[in-house]
């Protein structure tokens, strides 16, 4: 396994090397002596980092900056997602109850409409989301370089959709609801087709660019493999599971834009900006690379160690701080993948099991939804950034729901006040740093 140097370990723990060696001397973390200095096991470092984060609190020692340990900078009221006792609820309904059961039609479209409706439960007979019907967003996306990543395509699509929507500046409730459904569907319809599907007995058609449930329309834009009811059900479940997740950093960015009265397309663009990051939306791509290494024959422990070193912020796909006992979204999505009895899904799950066994035995960490997204992508020959696309499409609906709530509150309320801690101008003048 590739080991971390003392400098890399200290950076991961956020301490000086002197402090790191103090931990070593107290027996808190082990090291190996190498030809060029001390070496540390990446998984042992991650375990220690997690334990230290849980044990440390502002009441011990000097107070830390707000948010440095994942604690909230502020509390913002929300009526969409609740995370409590290790479970996720959307509008008071457990997340697993919102996912379509076996033999049922996809549910994501109904969930999106429900976010903007005044009903206790989503309507099971809700119509699929309809896009604008314009070919302009597809042409804009098609003009991008072939190697353009998921977020480049989505940003181009949202800009094109905004440019042709005359209702985008109308922030009334009923208009925002219409715009949001067009936006979510339009993002999917604008993406290029990778494969041609066929009718399936789940009621979904993937043969065209529009029409049918969102999951069925998204499928041929993620893979050239044929759609089946079981496969579309898993993709639909992933969309439902990702629709909202409390005040994630991308949701905060989206709400901040809405507080300035940005229109829904600009709100989603703001969310994309925060989602397109190594510690948020792009995590599943890193997990995909890890799983691919193991699938190609790499030793699981060595592959995990390499991914930990490259990521620099923990093991990608493991350890969701809001769920100490495991991410319920990951459990549900991995279970649905298993239930497909699809040989390709079973092979990808076997790879994931090898990685999970290594990580859990060394750190006690559980898989996150990012690992489940990466397994889905690996199983069904999707691009490495397919999980990002699914994440972005799903969360764009949640951001629009948050925007609608924010439009009803005082404008610019999420504009914080900075506290200046830089050098004093008078001191700079005295030191000669400022020309007189």
The average pLDDT score comes to: 88
The radius of gyration computed from the alpha-carbon positions, rounded to a whole number of angstroms, is 23 Å
- Listing every helix as H and every strand as E from the N terminus to the C terminus, the arrangement reads EHHEEHEEEHHHHHHHHHHHHHHHH
Gap between N and C termini: 58 Å
Largest beta sheet: what is the strand line-up?
A: 1-3-2
Q: Outline the biggest β-sheet.
A: 3 strands, antiparallel
The rough form would be described as globular
Task: Give unreliable regions as ranges.
Answer: 56-69, 197-209
- Percent of residues in helices comes to 40-55%
User: What's the architecture of the largest domain, going by CATH?
Assistant: Orthogonal Bundle
Structure summarized in a few sentences:
The chain has 436 residues and is mainly α. The protein contains 19 helices and six strands. The model is unreliable at 56-69 and 197-209 (pLDDT under 50).
What features would you describe in this structure?
This protein is mainly alpha-helical and 436 residues long. The chain folds into 3 domains: 48 residues, Multidrug-efflux Transporter Regulator, Chain: A, Domain 2; 210 residues, Orthogonal Bundle (Citrate Synthase, domain 1); 97 residues, Cytochrome p450-Terp, domain 2, CATH 1.10.230. It is 51% helix and 4% strand. The chain has 19 helices and 6 strands. The strands form 2 sheets. Strands 1-3-2 form a 3-stranded antiparallel beta sheet. A 3-stranded antiparallel beta sheet has the order 4-5-6. The longest helix has 22 residues.
């Amino acid at each position: 396994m590739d080991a971390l140097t003392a400098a890399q370990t200290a950076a991961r723990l956020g301490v000086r090397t002197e402090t790191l060696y103090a931990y070593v001397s107290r027996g808190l973390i082990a090291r190996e002596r190498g030809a060029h200095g001390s070496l540390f096991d990446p998984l042992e470092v991650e375990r220690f980092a997690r334990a230290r984060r849980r044990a440390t609190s502002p009441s011990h020692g000097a107070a830390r900056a707000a948010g440095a340990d994942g604690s909230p900078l502020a509390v913002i009221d929300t009526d969409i997602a609740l995370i409590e006792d290790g479970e996720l609820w959307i509008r008071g309904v457990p997340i697993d109850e919102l996912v379509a059961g076996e033999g049922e039609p996809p549910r994501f479209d109904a969930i999106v409409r429900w976010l903007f409706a005044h009903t206790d439960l989503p309507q099971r007979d809700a119509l699929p989301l309809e896009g604008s019907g314009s070919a302009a967003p597809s042409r804009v996306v098609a003009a991008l370089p072939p190697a353009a990543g998921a977020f480049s395509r989505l940003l181009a699509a949202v800009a094109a959709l905004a440019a042709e929507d005359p209702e985008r500046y109308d922030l009334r409730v009923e208009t925002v609801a219409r715009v949001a459904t067009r936006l979510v569907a339009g993002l999917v319809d604008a993406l290029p087709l990778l494969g041609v599907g066929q009718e399936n007995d789940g009621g979904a058609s993937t043969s065209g660019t529009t029409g049918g449930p969102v999951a069925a329309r998204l499928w041929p834009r993620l893979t050239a493999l044929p759609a089946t009811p079981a496969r579309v059900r898993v993709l639909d479940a992933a969309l439902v599971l990702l629709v909202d997740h409390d005040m994630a950093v991308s949701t905060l960015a989206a709400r901040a834009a809405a507080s300035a009265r940005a229109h829904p397309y600009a709100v989603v663009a703001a969310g994309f900006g925060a989602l397109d990051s190594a510690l948020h939306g792009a995590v599943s791509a890193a997990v995909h690379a890890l799983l691919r290494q193991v699938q190609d024959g790499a030793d699981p422990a060595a592959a995990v160690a390499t991914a930990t070193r490259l990521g620099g912020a923990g093991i990608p796909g493991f350890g969701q701080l809001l769920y100490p006992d495991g991410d319920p979204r990951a459990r549900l999505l991995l279970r649905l993948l298993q239930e497909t009895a699809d040989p390709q899904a079973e092979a990808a799950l076997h790879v994931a099991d090898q990685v999970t066994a290594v990580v859990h035995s060394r750190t006690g960490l559980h898989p996150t939804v990012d690992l489940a997204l990466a397994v889905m992508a690996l199983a069904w020959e999707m691009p490495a950034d397919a999980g990002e696309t699914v994440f972005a499409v799903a969360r764009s609906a949640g951001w629009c729901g948050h925007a609608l709530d924010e439009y009803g509150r005082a404008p610019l309320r999420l504009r914080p006040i900075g506290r200046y801690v830089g050098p004093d101008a008078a001191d700079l003048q005295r030191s000669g740093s400022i020309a007189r």
